[in-house]
Design a protein that fits this description.
The complex is a heterodimer of chains A (245) and B (854). Chain A is mostly beta strands. Chain A contains one helix and 18 strands. In chain A, the strands form three sheets. In chain A, strands 3, 7, 9, 13, 14, 16, 17 and 18 form an eight-stranded antiparallel β-sheet that branches. In chain A, strands 2, 4, 5, 6, 8 and 15 form a six-stranded antiparallel β-sheet that branches. A four-stranded mixed β-sheet of chain A has the order 1-12-10-11, with no helix packed on it. In chain A, a hairpin with a 2-residue loop joins strand 16 and strand 17. With 854 residues, chain B is of the alpha/beta class. In chain B, helix 1 runs antiparallel to helix 11. Chain B starts with a helix and ends in a 12-residue tail after the last strand. About 1% of the residues of chain B have low confidence. Chains A and B meet through strand 7, strand 14, strand 16 and strand 17 of A and helix 25, strand 9 and helix 33 of B.
Chain lengths: 245, 854
């Protein structure tokens, strides 16, 4: 089975304007000098979208009898879920750019206190050039593996049309994986970004929630503004989503 | 016309050789006649004319023979001519000719005095010369000299001026005139260098056009024909390399054959010869990288060896050649599986490092920084450390392994903050007892003068649009003279008392040695570990050295430069941006390395750590705490951060400050309530009156700093990115900048800079970092506490109260800071706290001043 990454986010979970980060300490309490802010720098920050995660139980992605022995052994110890994540960035003013952004996932403990963790992340580290038509499969160790073409003998994979630098992922082995997107010369933080996460959980963990968040550094007229995806609703948190169960 | 046929036309075999030989014989005759004429002529204009002509013929002969003695004689002739006919056109011409001879001798022998004299004389001649052809010649030569200086200083201003000046020369020279050809060549050379720096294809193509036009107007017998042909070949190879097309292989081979012919015929030591071999070697290396054919690798090595052999020791390009040769030689190890290739590469890289370090103590500031920039840009130290570590895994004996690891650590530390180490090394140190007082006094005077010369240049660094000519005002000559005098003083010291050898070795400012590191570890005792962080092309390394060990322990992790960029970027976003929403991930990749190091820290009560490059921006105490490093009592392990471990012996040996009242400054701008209260509290502890609010002017603060053993400044401060010497402390009437501090003598035992970003630094060149902290250390401070990012006003006031309280109770300064920071840090994994920003550098053993009440 080959899962293709779509062109645009099909099912948005949340869409809205970034909000200035209210945890940044005010300049008055610091012993340094601050740049003078322009008029209303915090208005009209970029609009972002967060896609609803798509989740597959790993065993469902393979035909019966197709699983190599090492994989079967790992799958007998824990449950593994492949999660496709997406976000997009749309600065709406010429003078505004997203210099850096982080898409973070916080895997929440269940009622019994069990917590899932990120077993592997893709893309992990993209620094050099735009990668096109990237096919990723799973190694017998259950780690993501970029393959030349096709999906080989494993029988499962997913394909990106394009991956733009710079991307740096973190949090393997932990419940809070994240992807950082950094603007570089000739490549802005703009448009849709796709990510894949392999989540490892105890077989006893029948349900798993995750909280998603986008954090960004927005540059406007030389001023850097820390911002994040703050939902306007207050009754329920629309960025916490059930992954399975 | 192909390049090969052009070369054939330009440098035609036996006929050209015959012409050269006839020309040389004719020159010999002319020189003999002119010499006799000079001897017979009366002093005056007539003799001056003969001297100028004699100089010109000697320069012509040098072009054929490469004999530097001819250049020296020519320079002497021009000087005598200038002095015999002052104020005349002839004197101006002689001055211009002298500039040409100076730069020619520089390219052959590499003495900076010649290069700076070429620039100074060239500018002086241009100030008076009117004739367009003469101006074109003068401008062209100045362009050449500026380009050569760029090789050594890496100042873009020199390169850009070199281009501008050569463009003017091309414009001024008449079409078809020899000056036009020469100016075109110099402009092409400068453009090629700029193309290398900026990867500009436009500059490369423009250089090709200039060589073509120079070839079209160069006479058959002109000395310019070979340089033009060599330039054409080099630029064509670069164009072919850029195209990367396989169908050009034939043209590439023909071009290489032509260049080889030029190189073989060029005079020994000429730039044309080694540059041609280097171009061939670079092309063969590129081809090897494409097809992995071992024969190409060997051809690359052969050509690069020829380039190295042909380049004089003083050639600015030689380190680059040695580096390239080392890279090619090390590839042999991967091809053959034998470590001999790597060992041979190591020898070339070490030679490059030694060349770049040669004369470091006596060259002007711009050259010191340039040398470090070149070394860092080529990544030579990184290659050497990497090679030693690989070879350490290959050698069979324990002694062999130890030798490799010792060398690796020494190279790693010697690469860091070479200039700061030298400047601090010139501070007033107590001389050994047996040294004659007059020698110690003269040494002090010489160091004071050298420091003044360096400070004048450092204070101006990055401030002017242009580059100050180091040869102006006789500064370069003075430096050389002082250095010679120092050598004599040191010889006298060691003759009087052999025990002074260690002292002299420390003062010489030579690169760090293993003995210095081992002595330092021994002196600090078993409770202190010296840690050196370094980054090779693929691994991050921490060397751990403890007292009495024959070699350092080495811990490594696969963490390459791009990942370090990622660490620093994450640190900026997660800690410096001050957002409480972003989880801290920046230190995760370093934790395995620090956990591995902790296995070597048994019984350690203090760590002295020298970070590498951008690692200076990170709070290592916090990383260490997160990695589980603890002191024997289970508390935070005190950590002292140094730009280089080699700095520490100088700071430990600094003469203590004279007793006196402490200086305490608080809230000069009147908008930091907690800073004011902090200053008042600390001043009360010290028994002094603080300088608060508007009373804390620059003049008053500086006046007190000059007379105090201890100072505490609680104020706004700023770091100036891109211009670190403009960073400063905001006082009541303005900013006290690092530049101003550099010009001061501030012999404080302890200085606490309780403001934002007071410990942030940026490189001036290579791994030479500058900022407020470095300025104060150079000005005479023995121990410094400063911050790595913006700090919170109330949190800092609380931290400082705790710090001074512990110091008054008799704890070492590093332990005081570790305890205060640890107490301020919120429980749990949490986030970097404002207090984590503070780091301590220098001598932690300074005790509470006896004049202050306990």
């Amino acid at each position: 089975m080959l899962l293709r990454v779509p062109d645009t986010i099909q099912r948005p979970l949340w869409e809205g304007e970034l909000a200035a980060d209210d945890t940044v300490p005010p300049a008055e309490t610091q012993r340094g000098t601050q740049p003078v802010r322009g008029v209303d720098p915090l208005r009209n920050l970029p609009v972002v979208s967060i896609g609803r995660p798509e989740v597959w139980n790993l065993v469902d992605l393979f035909d019966a009898g197709e699983l190599p022995a090492p994989m079967r052994a790992k799958l007998s110890e824990a449950s593994f879920h492949l999660v496709r994540l997406a976000c997009s960035f749309r600065p709406e003013h010429d003078s505004t750019e997203i210099d850096w952004a982080r898409f973070s996932v916080s895997l929440q403990p269940d009622e019994a206190g069990l917590t899932a963790s990120a077993f592997d992340l893709h893309p992990l580290f993209v620094t050099q050039e735009v990668k096109r038509n990237v096919t990723v499969s799973l190694a017998p160790t259950l780690k993501f593996l970029e393959v030349e073409a096709g999906i080989g003998s494993i029988g499962f994979g997913f394909e990106y049309q394009e991956i733009q630098p710079v991307i740096s992922a973190s949090g393997a082995g932990e419940p809070e994986p994240a992807w950082d997107f950094q603007a570089v010369k000739g490549a802005r933080v703009y448009g849709s970004k796709w990510m894949h996460l392999l989540v490892r959980a105890s077989p006893a963990m029948t349900a798993c929630d995750a909280r998603l968040e986008l954090s960004a550094d927005v540059v406007r007229s030389g001023l850097r503004i820390a911002a994040f995806s703050r939902p306007r609703q207050t009754s329920a948190d629309p960025l916490t989503v059930r992954l399975w169960g | 016309m192909t390049f090969r046929s052009r070369v054939r036309a330009l440098v035609a075999g036996p006929a050209a050789a015959l012409r050269r030989s006839e020309h040389a014989a004719e020159l010999d005759r002319q020189i003999a006649r002119l010499r006799a004429g000079v001897d017979d002529a009366e002093p005056g204009l007539g003799r001056a004319e003969l001297l100028n002509s004699l100089g010109n013929r000697l320069v012509d002969r040098h072009r054929l023979s490469g004999d530097a003695a001819d250049l020296a004689s020519a320079m002497d002739c021009y000087r005598r001519c200038r002095d015999l006919a002052p104020g005349t056109e002839l004197a101006t011409a002689a001055l211009g000719n002298l500039a040409v001879a100076c730069v020619n001798r520089y390219t052959q022998l590499g003495a900076l005095e010649d290069l700076e004299a070429a620039i100074t004389n060239g500018r002086a001649a241009l100030a008076v010369v009117q004739d367009p052809a003469d101006r074109a010649r003068g401008l062209s030569n100045l362009s050449h000299a500026l380009h050569e200086r760029y090789y050594r200083t890496r100042h873009r201003e020199d390169l850009d001026e070199s281009v501008t000046v050569a463009e003017l020369a091309v414009e001024l020279a008449a079409a078809g005139a020899p000056e036009r050809a020469a100016a075109s060549v110099n402009l092409a050379v400068a453009l090629l260098e700029r193309a290398a720096a900026t990867e500009s294809f436009a500059d490369l193509d423009r250089a090709a056009g200039l060589y073509e036009s120079a070839a079209a107007i160069t006479d058959r017998d002109s000395w310019l024909r070979s340089p033009v042909a060599a330039g054409l070949g080099t630029v064509r190879l670069l164009q072919l390399r850029r195209s990367g097309q396989s169908q050009v292989a034939g043209e590439e081979a023909r071009t290489i054959a032509g260049l080889r012919a030029i190189a073989e015929r060029a005079p020994a030591g000429s730039a044309m010869r080694h540059a041609a071999y280097y171009a061939i070697g670079g092309t063969m290396w590129q081809r090897y990288q494409r097809d992995r054919d071992p024969a190409r690798l060997e051809a690359a090595i052969e050509a690069l060896e020829a380039a190295v052999a042909a380049a004089p020791d003083g050639a600015g390009e030689l380190p680059r050649y040695l580096n390239a040769l080392g890279i090619a030689l090390s590839e042999r190890t991967f091809v053959s599986g034998s470590y001999q290739g790597l060992a041979a590469a190591l020898a070339e890289w070490v030679r490059a490092l030694n060349l770049l370090d040669r004369g470091f103590g006596s060259v002007p500031m711009a050259y010191k920084l340039g040398q470090q920039d070149i070394a860092a840009g080529l990544g030579i130290a990184e290659r050497v450390v990497s090679a030693y570590l690989v070879l350490a895994e290959a050698v069979a004996t324990r002694a062999g392994v130890d030798r490799m690891l010792r060398s690796a650590m020494v190279i790693a530390e010697a690469a860091k903050s070479r200039l700061l180490t030298e400047l601090i090394g010139r501070a007033d140190l107590p001389a050994p007892a047996g040294v004659p007082a007059e020698d110690a006094g003269r040494e002090r005077e010489i160091f004071a003068e050298l420091r003044m010369l360096d400070t004048v240049e450092l204070v101006d660094h990055g401030r002017d649009a242009g580059v100050t000519d180091a040869g102006s005002d006789g500064r370069l000559a003075r430096r050389t003279a002082l250095r010679g005098e120092l050598d004599a003083v040191w010889a006298s010291m060691t003759a009087a008392d052999p025990r002074a050898e260690a002292y002299v070795a420390l003062r010489r400012g030579r690169p760090l040695s293993w003995e210095t590191l081992a002595d330092l570890a021994r002196r600090l005792g078993p409770g202190t570990a010296l840690l050196s962080v370094f980054l090779t092309n693929s691994r991050t390394v921490i060397f751990v050295l403890r007292s009495g060990e024959d070699a350092p322990d080495v811990c490594t992790v696969d963490l390459e430069p791009a990942q370090w960029d990622d660490i620093v970027n994450r640190f900026d976003r997660e800690v410096l941006a001050g957002s409480g929403r972003r989880a801290e991930t920046w230190d995760r990749p370093l934790r395995p390395l620090l956990e591995a190091v902790s296995a070597h820290l048994g019984g350690v009560e203090r760590v002295v750590l020298a970070p590498y490059d951008a690692g200076l921006r990170l709070p290592w105490s916090l990383i260490a705490a997160r990695a589980g490093w603890r002191a024997g009592d289970g508390g935070a392990l005190p950590l002292v951060t140094m730009e280089s471990l080699g700095l520490l012996p100088f700071l430990l040996d600094r003469r203590p400050a004279a007793p006196g009242p402490a200086t305490v400054v608080g809230d000069p701008t009147g908008n930091l309530a907690h800073a004011g209260a902090e200053a008042a509290r600390i001043a009360a502890m010290m028994g002094v009156e603080p300088l608060l609010g508007p009373a804390a002017t620059k003049a008053r603060v500086l006046d007190r700093l000059r007379r105090s053993p201890v100072a505490h400044i609680a104020a706004h401060a700023l770091f100036s990115p891109g211009s670190p010497l403009d960073s400063g402390i905001v006082l009541a009437d303005g900013v006290l900048t690092a530049r101003e501090i550099l010009a001061e003598s501030v012999t404080l035992d302890l200085l606490v800079l309780s403001g934002c970003e007071t410990g942030v630094a940026e490189p001036l060149g290579g791994y030479e970092f500058a900022g407020l902290s470095q300025a104060f250390l150079q000005a005479g401070v023995r121990c410094l506490v400063a911050s790595l990012w913006r700090v919170d006003d109330p949190a800092t006031a609380a931290l400082m109260a705790s710090f001074y309280g512990a110091w008054r109770d008799g704890l070492d300064l590093d332990r005081c800071l570790a305890r205060a920071v640890s107490a301020a840090r919120p429980a749990g994994p949490g986030r970097a706290h404002s207090s984590d920003a503070f780091v301590l550098s220098g001598d932690w053993s300074i005790t509470w001043p006896v004049t202050a009440p306990r």
